[in-house]
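seq as requested:
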Amino acid sequence: MNLLKKYSVIPGLVIFITMFFLGCEGNFKDVQRSNFVEFVPASDADNVNIKYTDSGLISGILISPKMLDYSNVSFPFTDFPKGIDVTLYDKKRKRTYVRANYAISYKQTSVIDLQGKVKITTDDGQMLETEQLYFDQKNEWFYTERKFKFTDAKGVSYGQGIDFSKDFKIINSQRINGEIETEE
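struct tokens:
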């Protein structure tokens, strides 16, 4: 008889635990909602055309169909969900063109993350194509660990991992292949 009483408690305990969790589910969802902070941009702009200047000279022009500014969050950033088209000017007025399907600029680090058919060209005919590329605005330096295609007057090369100055004067590439001319 003792054996029957022991096992008759288990179904009652299962029903009690089930009812406890079902009863708490509604409260748990209310707690989740109270902790949810709506993630909305501080500003939203369409068809932007921003000109950056340095000592009275234009140093860059950014054109984008959509810009979302999230300066109201703890790690502020600017989002360009429909891509960007940028023209950078060096001190000798030579241009570097940057195009990407998506970009996000982080204010605290001054790094821009370019994604989706990233293409950079210069007035000298140099061109780099990749799927993701970072631009360090403070150092005016591009870098990626992704696969890339680099074209210039010496030929076409492919590789994975590259970093270079915005004017392509200094280029450091990793795991490169292709036919290129060297000055050696």
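Residues 1-36 form one domain.
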